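Run Heptaprenyl diphosphate synthase component 1 through structure prediction, thanks.
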Amino acid sequence: MKPYRVPQLARKYVEYDMIQQHTEMPAFPDSRTRLMFVFLNRNAQELHASEDELYALVTSLVQMGLDTHDMIDTLSGIRSPEEMRSRQLKVLAGDYFSSRFYQLLALAGRITAISKLSDAVCEVNAGKMSLYWGMKQFRLDATQYLTQMVRFKKELFYHSLHL
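Sure, done. The structure for Heptaprenyl diphosphate synthase component 1 is below.
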């Protein structure tokens, strides 16, 4: 089995001084990525190991993009320049993390994987919209909320096992 080095590969995409100085970012989803890598790699031959690493990397970047967007303050009101900068950087960083998967998979010629992972992102976002709508109308209890949030956190990784 190939050694696990996805976090090291992700660093060049997620560690930027400007972002780290001016806003809080979500942690790299290491435990989920490691588990996904093990599942992908368990029966892989060396020929496919780099592809498994690519899928683990792009899925973790998309998850970081979604997690970053989840941290964006949606309250209206006047913000300080520092708060506005932090919010804007979260929007841009989330978009950047999410967009890198397109580039990395396209460069590897994995167009079908782009489509499948994009569909998974669409499912997660549609589910989140339903969740937020239910919350706004006070139709969710704590158990329902937690169940849905757990589902969203695992959805991309589940779909990535079938790329």
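The mean pLDDT is 88.
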